[in-house]
Amino acid sequence: MNTAFTCVLDVRASLGECPVWSAHEQALFWIDINAPSLNRFDPHTRDNTVMPMPEAIGSFALREAGGFVVALRSGIWLCNPHGKLERRVVEAPYDTARIRFNDGRNDRQGRFVVGTMNEKRDGPDAALYRMDVDFKLTTLFGGITLANGLAWSPDSRTMYHADTPTRTIRAFDYDIATGTPSRPRIFAHWDGDTQNPDGGSVDSAGSYWIALYGDGRLAQVAPDGKLIAYHPLPAKCPTMCAFGGNDLRTLFVTTARQKRDADELARFPQSGSIFAMRIETPGINEVPMRV
């Protein structure tokens, strides 16, 4: 298999996810949902610092004051820079026996937008939420099973979102002032059984990059929804990508190895690790939440 991706952290996590580049620290933060843990990877030293979490962590975002906003099964918490939970600011708005938080990130106005997932995938009873800086939680929409693919266009006026079991990315108009999506329409769709859209990100030219879980590739999609290219990885289950490095031209990808058979892991032994490749178009810095 020809791939431009190389392994930069041979960690072999169960479910690596949610890579977030910190421009301030010049480091990549990421999670292992199943460990569960929040991690800090320094690409210069290749050191990875593990910060254990007490329960499943679906996603997180940077805070302007330092530390993180973390979406745990029990709710949304504030966390200090060393991974110590400070206080819960939002209780879980769901039945924690069936549903947990999943994909989430800050919009470019510093509001935390986060979705949930039905862990049994037996019904569309998950939702997408927005948490404002006063910690008020607003339901943006429901009727989904597994929230993923959250990203915004460079001008923030388009929001992208995936309900993974449908293999469909939808685009929404996004009201920058209120943080409200509207006018959903199909942006991209895949038909293959293994082409499951997971985490996504947008570069500074507006291309949407989406990890296809089970397919071993990232898809790069133009702003008009046309496929630009597929980018293969040495792992079958990429989960999400993030732009990093001092020029934001290093594309990092987290991957998973959970529930993969022995033959696949023999062919792709570094599944669950973090991979990276250099790209021509830089990404866009993540905006910390103003808390």
Strand content: over 45%
CATH architecture: 6 Propeller
Strand order of the largest sheet: 1-24-23-22
Number of helices: 1
| Helix content percent band | under 10%
Give the H and E element order.
EEEEEEEEEEEEEEEEEEEEEEEHE
Low-pLDDT segments, ≥5 res: none
Main CATH class: Mainly Beta
> How many domains, as an integer?
1
Class computed from helices, strands and strand pairing: mainly beta
Alpha-carbon distance between the termini?
A: 45 Å
Largest sheet composition: 4 strands, antiparallel
CATH topology: Neuraminidase
What's the helix and strand layout?
Elements: E1 6-9, E2 16-22, E3 27-32, E4 37-42, E5 47-52, E6 57-62, E7 68-72, E8 75-79, E9 85-91, E10 99-106, E11 112-118, E12 126-131, E13 137-144, E14 147-152, E15 158-163, E16 168-175, E17 180-189, E18 196-202, E19 208-213, E20 217-221, E21 227-232, E22 238-244, E23 250-255, H1 262-267, E24 274-278
Antiparallel strand pairs: 1-24, 2-3, 3-4, 4-5, 6-7, 7-8, 8-9, 10-11, 11-12, 12-13, 14-15, 15-16, 16-17, 18-19, 19-20, 20-21, 22-23, 23-24
